[in-house]
Specification:
The chain is an alpha/beta fold. It is built from 7 helices and 7 strands; from the N terminus they run βαβαβαβαβαβααβ.
Length: 247
């Protein structure tokens, strides 16, 4: 196993559960210190920290914040610097997802979906940028295949993820050459916690050339590659979707 991540600090938003927690476990196993951001999943965050620190004491810090509250975002960067003295990678993983049919969408829906999926990641990147420049680090944004081709009944979410794809390209130019910025666009990795319905799930799988869902490990391995191995790649978005977008 490479020791490239030994002593490096990685900030992961929405890291207490689901794909974020799996990515945290993978990068921690490769030697990284992890700042676990969460909003309301305090119990899950505490459990994850306890699990990881059984393997390596003092290697995990927790940072609670609502990404929609931009005033709270500096706290996440401050937690990383106060605890570990550096930031080597920022993973904007946290996301809100739910339907917003045009006839029923509200301004509150707009603020939540744009705030968590686009506004929060931008201003957190801004807060972390000086530290990432100092370490010649990177940012990886978790976008979505539906940022390229919209998901029916989810216009605000789709627009937010499209914006995050453009943010990836823009920041790759703005923060170069010290900081690389890339994105991962998952397909069907874990079904959303809000029920999509069996008919829609079946339709998605049937349109996927691999004819199956992916796993959080598919995202974690891609993340490891972009952070550890891809030092001449920036401004790119990688679909990890079993071929769904290209089919």
């Amino acid at each position: 196993m490479s020791d490239f991540l030994q002593g490096k600090t990685i900030v992961i938003t929405g890291a207490a559960r689901r794909v974020g927690a799996h990515v945290a476990r993978t990068l921690h196993a490769h030697g990284a210190n992890i700042v676990v951001h969460y909003r309301g999943s305090d119990g899950d965050a505490q459990t994850l920290r306890a699990d990881l620190e059984r393997a390596r004491a003092g290697s995990v810090a927790l940072a609670q914040a609502d990404l929609v509250d931009t005033a709270a975002l500096a706290h996440i960067a401050h937690t990383a610097i106060e605890r570990f003295g550096r930031i080597d990678a920022l993973i904007n993983n946290a996301s809100s997802f739910y339907p917003t049919p045009v006839a029923k969408a509200s301004e509150r829906d707009w603020d939540e979906l744009i705030g968590s999926n686009l506004k929060g990641p931008f201003f957190l990147a801004q807060a972390c940028a000086p530290h990432l420049r100092a370490s010649r680090g990177c940012i990886v944004n978790i976008v979505d295949i539906y940022g390229e081709r919209p998901l029916k009944l989810h216009p605000i979410y789709s627009m937010a993820k499209a914006g995050l794809i453009m943010m990836t390209k823009s920041l790759a130019r703005e923060l170069a050459p010290e900081v690389r910025v890339n994105a991962i666009a998952p397909g069907t990795i874990l079904w959303p916690e809000r029920e999509l319905g069996d008919e829609l799930k079946t339709s998605i799988i049937e349109r996927t050339p691999q004819r199956r869902s992916g796993s959080p490990d598919d995202i974690a391995r891609t993340m490891l590659f972009l952070i550890r191995d891809a030092d001449y790649i920036t401004g790119q978005s990688y679909n990890v979707d079993g071929g769904l977008v290209g089919s």
